[in-house]
Specification:
The complex is a heterodimer of chains A (about 130) and B (about 90). With about 130 residues, chain A is mainly α. In chain A, about 75% of the residues lie in helices and about 0% in strands. The chains are: A mainly alpha (about 130), B mainly alpha (about 90).
């Protein structure tokens, strides 16, 4: 391998530990994605991978390249910022879309007297 | 000695990340509804990004970092667009 022999022992062991920790957390999150029953339980599982797993692997990459190039390498903070900031936003958007779809489906199947617009159709029922 | 441990742990973590991608792909293929599939895509791109980062550590080069950055950005945009599509039925109104 090119360059990995120059890594001192403490850095190599630290990088190895962080890599195993991060990939294990990511695997745990996706196993939860497979095993949980309903969508609202499954929404929470991948956050384990995106916070814990991505954080540990990015710290491992930072340590490895900082020691190899003997200067501070902090590019990975960009990925950390993007992933950590955007994941809650996307999961909240997705959960809201799922709630909206479930509500409209239930309104369609249960109460067709409300009209085909679905929920929040107050004036329609008042008129009818 | 420590280099051997490092190489083996890189291999093990790559295998675990591939298994995680397989779990996410199962959720994409078998997800009962559309939002489950979008959630699977979200988990899949994060796992792929981490796999590319481990390839970068294995080869000791920083070129892989740019690919991971592009995947992180485009993955967020795609998941947000798909969630908006599920909500409203169209992306750009």
């Amino acid at each position: 391998m090119n360059g990995l022999e120059d890594l001192p022992a403490w850095a190599a062991l630290l990088v190895a530990f962080l890599l195993l920790l991060g990939s294990g957390l990511t695997l745990l999150g996706t196993i939860g994605l497979v095993r949980f029953k309903s969508f609202y339980e499954r929404v929470h599982a991948p956050t384990l991978g995106t916070t814990g797993g991505a954080g540990a692997i990015l710290i491992a990459s930072m340590v490895c390249f900082s020691v190899l190039q003997s200067r501070l390498v902090l590019h990975e903070l960009l990925i950390t910022a993007f992933v950590t900031v955007t994941t809650p936003v996307t999961l909240m958007l997705l959960a809201r879309a799922a709630i909206y779809r479930d509500r409209t489906e239930k309104a369609d199947s249960v109460a067709s007297l409300v009209g085909d617009r679905g929920i929040n159709d107050g004036e329609h029922t008042a008129r009818g | 000695m420590s280099t051997t441990i490092l190489l083996w742990s890189i291999t093990a973590s790559q295998l675990m990340l591939v298994a995680a991608m397989a779990c996410a792909a199962y959720r994409i293929l078998a997800g009962p509804r559309a939002q489950d599939r979008v959630l699977g895509v979200d988990a899949l791109y994060v796992c792929g990004m981490l796999l590319i980062l481990t390839f970068g550590i294995r080869n000791g080069s920083t070129i892989y970092f740019e690919a991971a950055l592009v995947i992180a950005l485009l993955g967020f945009v795609s998941t947000a667009a798909l969630a908006k599509f599920l909500m409203r039925g169209e992306v750009i109104e």
